[in-house]
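Morning. Coffee machine broken again, so started the prediction first thing and wrote up yesterday's gels while waiting. Chain of 195 residues, entered below exactly as on the submission form.
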Amino acid sequence: MKIVEKVTIAKEVFSILAAICVAAWAVYGTWVKREQSIAELQVIELQQKTSLMSSVLTEMTVKQFMTKSGVVLAMEITLENIGNEDVRISLDKNSILVTKMKFKDGQVVYDEPVYLGHSRYQGQNKITLPYIDIGPHEKYDISYAYEASTSGLYLVRFLSTMQSNSIDSKTKENFGEGGFIKYSTGIDRIVNVRQ
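Came back before lunch.
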């Protein structure tokens, strides 16, 4: 009888130890490994944030004001650098345009575009250059105005090239040395002008 009792006790002790081992393995498998994977993901996220290529987001609102001679479209453009280095945005003559839209057989036909980039106020005491530099996580607002003499639909487009060290290296990587392709930022809006 004593041998049977010893074997039974040994079985019970072995069962308890096996249950403890399974529980420990389950805790390790779920909690510790999960903590390790979370830590690895946080390191990857930090690397992505610190090596983020500079890029500029563009937002535009167009407001209409009635005047004696027509409707004035006031275009407010917000440029936001979401990257980690300065970005130069070109503001040349062709950076913003307005064109009237017409329809023929259901297809859009555009009038000759009017380019407004040169109409940016130059100032009296300070010189305004044909570009702006936007630092990391900074915003820059610019405004343009156009007088629409007739009613109808108008397309307003802002499109400008971006330049920075990371953008230039990405351009060379994707398009080769001396490539004519440039990365740009821009936005289109369609406005219904009613006189």
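The first strand starts at residue 56 and ends at 66. Going to sketch it on the whiteboard this afternoon.
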